[in-house]
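User: Run a structure prediction on this.
Assistant: Running it now.
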Amino acid sequence: DATYGRRVRTTHRRGKRMTHVIEFHFDFVSPCSHLAITQLPALVRRHGAEIVYEPFRILELIDAALAARPG
């Protein structure tokens, strides 16, 4: 999926189009993050977007999800 790890959002206010925002959630443990980050400059140029970098730790997320499951 070409949009993995990226979300392009367009907001509108009083009929005016606002800036696109790409929220990039990443953890450099993930090889997908390395691949996705190479595509961000082209998205910025193509959409006039702003990138918001959102780091997270995938291993901590997995541990929390496993701890929270029943049984």
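The CA atoms of residues 15 and 49 lie 19 Å apart.
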